[in-house]
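User: Fold this; tokens only.

Assistant: Input:
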Amino acid sequence: MDDEGRGGARTGPWAAPVLHADLDAFYAAVEQRDDPRLRGVPVAVGGGVVLAASYEAKRRGVRTAMGGRAALAACPDLVFVRPRFEAYTEASRAVFEIFHATTPQVQGVSIDEAFLDVRGLRRIDAPPVDLAARLRARVRDEVGLPITVGVARTPFLAKVASRVAKPDGLLRVDPDAEDAFLHPLPLEVLWGVGEVTAAKLHVYGLRTAGDVASLPVGVLAGILGPAAGRHLHAVVHGRTPERVVVDRRRSSVGAQRALGRGPHAPADVRAALLGLVDRVGRRLRAGHRTAGTVVLRLRFADYTAATRSRTLPQATASTPELGAAATALLDAAGPLVAARGLTLVGVALTGLAPDTWVQPALPLGGPDAAGLDGALDAVRDRFGAAGVTRASLLHRGEGMAVPLLPE
């Protein structure tokens, strides 16, 4: 009998064929790798806001998205480092090459984590836990970064296993002991249970996955709503999808930059934004994609955030066009930026589509519009008013006369 998944025996080394690989404190780890002076000391990447913190800093109470002053209050010897996104992108690319060398079934989740389905290697390679150990060794030796891997029957359980095993660990969840692993865990460890959901459950004295598992689905639906209640009931009972999704195309591409506390000159913010547009535009073209919408993301000194978007007349991968849309959004948000103080700027491109067939927009507007009008007037003067007409009028029977051209 096959031993893969619930459909067969839930025993044997191949009963848990899904890996979740997650780089540890990624941005901070890259900085510590590249600068020996930072190793073993608390490090935060960012400026006014913490984008990432090393585990030395996390153990002292520093958290992602924490303000710089609060981080220094929690850890006075914290070392702040300006982010180097190009270095992080290069490190991520090297790690993902190792992922794809392990198995073609890779689902990237973010720049620093992915799911790997290795069930197809059953007859030609080592068991999943051995593959995970080999992957960790390769990332450490070839890229110089620590990585944690969870191994389980489903992507959800593998993700939770990697969370429990951090930092720099390896944990396999035996399919026959999933409840014993899952039920003692705090609700906050469960993938998809955020602070709001956990707070609602805490009101009812529910603290662990086991507490939730003891409730009927109808009770959870009453607390969280029908959809969320059914989902969480399935989660705590191990009834989540078993397959890794590898054919889903990315729906967006983005980048952001921490600016630190200002004030910042508008020209400097504009330059930072255009640098981000250069980066995402290059990634867009490398993936043979076009974007239909530009999204501007702003974070302010009072820890609030704002998002603005603009849908383009024509999908494009042109950096000048994308940059023009992004800077127009920034200009429109000028009063908000001035009032709140900007600490982070980001840009995202959405509405992605393949660039196989792209119809460029005709340059019929802008500074050439007057010349176009003059040309159309000249045609009508020579050939009559029906010589040129709008295509939108043709279905109404207007403008159908064909002018006689002079011999």
